[in-house]
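Supplementary Text 2. Reproducibility record for the structural model of the 566-residue chain.

All settings were left at their defaults, and a single model was retained for analysis rather than an ensemble. We include the record here because the model underlies the residue-level annotations in Supplementary Table 4.
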Amino acid sequence: MSINGALQIGQSAILASQAAIQVAGNNMANAATPGYNRQVARLSPSRPEFIGRGGFIGTGVQLARIQRTVDVALQGRARNAISDQNAAEIDQRFLNAIETIRNELSDQDLSSRLSAFFNSFSELANNPTDEAVRTVVVQQGSGLATAIRELRAEHVNVRTEIDRALGSTIRTVDGLLDQIADVNRQIVETEQGGAGGDANSLRDRRDMLVDEISAYIPVSTVEQPNGALDILVGSVPVVLAGESRGIVLRTESSGSGTVVSLRVEADGTTLAPDGGQVGALFRQRADTVDPAIADLDTLARELAFQVNRIHSQGQGLRGYTSVTGLNTVLDRTANLAADAAGIPFDIRNGSFELHVTNQSTGERTTVLVAVDPNTTSLDQLAARIAAAFPGGTGSASATADGALRIDASNGYEVSFSDDSSGVLAALGINGFFGGSSGVDIAVNQALVDDPRLLAAGQGHVPGSNAAALAIAGLEEVGVDSLGGRSLRGFWQSATTSLAVRTQAANTKAESAALVRESIDSQIQATSGVSLDEESINMLSYQRQFQAAARYIATIDETLQTLLTIV
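Retained model, structure tokens:
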């Protein structure tokens, strides 16, 4: 081995130890830097030199690579935990929001208002001719209808909040995808397919971006041989090497409302994330808020129809000189059972009785009006009612906006009974409530103006309370369209189901946070910087540097001795 070779060994040791000291120092400098992964200087012996007779002698040490300490499997688990925790927090947030809005078990919740409304009819049954009690019934009905409308509006506000959050979140994710594509290009350029070493700082930056995306949407990654990282949502790529394919929120209108979906901007492919903030927002919109709004609409529709079904066949202290239906049809010429008519209530083949009473004499004439919803339009029904009036006592017509109007002539008034078709309740003739959902349910303004029209009796029996008793019983009577549950039972069931889901969401959010903390601790143990450990490494590399320097000094002394001899 030559003197020059010996000096090269010393030089390699000094250079390697210097580089290792720098790595340890860089670790210590970034001990508190978010997203930094500890780096390790990997040293390896240089290629040995053949010195003959089958012998090889070492030529020093070399810095093989500066490697990040990253556990890829643990990193994948961490990203899943990030997605799960953020999804759980979104679930918890909006389930608690809906539960808070409903505010059940309070004195002003919807269940209490339902009970107060039906109890007011019980009081009316005890005093069917008391106008003060009638006014209370109308006020309770108005309060209940207002509460339903306001509650639905608050639910819609939550859905609007979700839509806004989806829009801003997806724009954020789209921007992060662009950044990852840009970092991909920088890594490929820097590493030159591996020839340029590892771009550790850029890789740390990219990992932080992927972790950040995982909070919004669960992703999987595939690293290419050139160092680029492909990002996939499910099986759909959203980043390919240095190109982001982009994601957008698409909003479309449908018959049931607004439909939102997540699409790949490049080709319109639908994405269906099942976790992260985006997945949870979609889930809360579809599985919590929309069903909650649907429950309110169902309650409002059935409340209106069931109360109107009884009220429309009852009589108040006086009849109507003119009555206009509270509900309208979309097409006056379409059969009442057709979709084109747009009637949300069930009308059957049957009939109802129209009573025309002379106000001065009390003489009453009763006519039977047949109804076949499969062959009868609103215009035809109005013509049939008009023809049924005894000569000169009244008329009927369909208004321009699709309501049925019935007028009695001067000196006469009309009332109704025995409706086997349900058409009076469906069209809102002599109805207590107007509307068919939580959007438009309201008490008949005619009852507000004159509570004497409130139908407490049936059969035109003075002092009758049959209608009031029947309506009061609706609180506990099963309704077929509600699966056999009563109106109150239906709402309590929906509220209980929400409470169970909310409690489960609270528990899941706590569990997800614990899992995230546990995995973060494991990552810190693997990739985090220990100042004590780095201090020991630095001392070790310092000793190596000192030994190399001493080795070179020894070789130099040897060289000087040889030169002196010569």
